Hints:
Strand content: under 5%
Structural class: mainly alpha
Helix content: over 70%
Amino acid sequence: xxxxxxxxxxxxxxxxxxxxxxxxxxxxxxxxxxxxxxxxxxxxxxxxxxxxxxxxxxxxxxxxxxxxxxxxxxxxxxxxxxxxxx
Length: 86
């Protein structure tokens, strides 16, 4: 009987995880649509401005010889910090 309950619990957990995954995918799709409908300024504020400002701040402090390359590398390295917001 205990094994039956364990099996049912696993099945229930699996279904719950699948539902959560499906829900997250649906939310992600809705967010992408919402981004497309935003005015330009709001779109940039939500997607690029935070990481760009951080990069420009670091750039101003460090003043590297190749500022464009430095900023590009910074944006690339830190893009994942901000993708969760999108």
